[in-house]
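User: Predict the complex with NAP.
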Amino acid sequence: MKPTAEELFGPPGTPRVAVVGAGFGGIATGVKLKQAGIDTFTIFESSPGVGGTWWDNTYPGAEVDVGSHLYCFSFKPYDWTRTHARQAELQRYLDETVDEFGLRAHLELGVRVESATWDDDRHVWSLRLEGGRTEEFHALVSAVGFLNVPVYPTWPGLGDFRGPAFHTARWEHEHDLAGKVVAVVGTGSSGTQVVPALQPTVKRLYVFQREPGWILPKGERDLTDGERAALASPWRRRRERWRLRYTVEKNLRGGKLFRPGTRANETRKQLCLRYIERQFADRPDLRDAVTPHYPYPGKRPVFASTFYRALKQENVELVPRAVAAVTPTGIVDADGVTREVDAIVMATGFRTTEYLARLRVVGRDGRTLQEHWAGEPRAFLGITVPGFPNLFILYGPGTNGGEIVTMLEAQAAYAVRSLQRMRRRSVTAVEVRPAAEARWDDWLQTRLRGTSWTMSKNYFRAPSGKVVTQWPYGNARYRVLTRLLGPVSETTRRRQPQSGTGRGRLINSEEALRGD
Ligand code: NAP
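Assistant: Here is the predicted structure with NAP placed in the model:
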């Protein structure tokens, strides 16, 4: 006779789940676990508050570039004040979601998970937490995000710079930059938001651009009272969400937008070029400097309505060169020219291709995820990895591209469905078959061939050159695949009766210390 869920997982009869990260992904997972009747979970978050990327990125001008009514959970509509919400409003939204769905009691804030090790005898993940505590769980959901570990440049002399020098994702609010000479390095989505926000208050702003991005205006504005009143109707709100979704999906359909030579790609490229023409008709020097010379989109496209205008202001100088070095009081460009500055803002991006860079995950055969990947991360649907049972990665390899909150919800739902199958089938380990994962990666790589991502410098490529981060289609296709492919891709096992610590019981370090 099959053991009961209580015998396998302990008295509540539900697996104990560790969720690492309390941003959009971790919160979606918590809500979906609760909706599935699984209350035996803990969300660990190394920051003192929830929010993930919106907790980290408090730089002036931080704002989402997807329509607010789409960039939110399907289960939590909101009275957004802007077409594109700012950081503070997103932070409020996420805090409110945590309270409304009863997640607060499941949170361990300010606790970093250092490592997770799979015990293949007992079918549990043993988590080592900062400070030495250990806890055991039946399943592990990584919701640590994709754009979470900042890239700090290794410019010679940076350590000796006398003024403040900080990353956009670690903004040091104690420094008043008003009236100062400031260098912003990097012109991606963060840099292009920081520059217009700083420009009106600083004395002088140097913007260091290594390679320009393809930019389109975003059309952000406050919603009028009338619009907000209309959107209070659930039906109107749903319609607005579908309208935004349709716009995104239409653009991403068939992945043509990413393929040079297609009409969709050429049309978008021309839109960007015309935007440059219009903005810089009076400044041909800047027009040439901001025009990309690589296939569209090549990098993550930037949506920014105020960046080009800011570059034309008298107190701003665009330096279309990389940074070569830093002196105690200035910054040296690749041509050897030094500019004296009071502060340096590094809008230099994130360590994207080192998934789970700060979480050491040791799988069934004793190897870490990083060793298993050997520099080229990959996962079935971006979620599961052979040799790492009961591990679910949110925003994993090959899933960057579509609207992210929808992707995260699909991934959280996938993990929860897997856990429910474990209960139904009375199994204690679920693992993707290596052949299924290999076929997935082969398929994805064939779909990435011919995209501009493979032809440009960007943060999507591993050091080997392989594009490891991208999903080349819209959300609809991905969601369907996550719904269909779980059961057919996995193998399951049941823990041997003698190898458990009895009736699904897990131990933690406090019990071990007490000698229970
Ligand atoms: P990013 O897109 O990686 O941009 C980093 C910038 O820094 C690039 O311009 C890069 O130049 C430059 N850079 C990096 N290292 C440098 C060095 N050593 N010297 C000189 N320049 C250097 O990072 P991000 O702007 O923080 O954006 C990351 C992602 O976060 C975005 O793509 C987006 O997905 C997300 N994001 C979204 C929003 C939003 O509105 N929703 C806002 C911010 C960020 P190269 O291009 O030459 O490499």
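The first strand starts at residue 17 and ends at 20.
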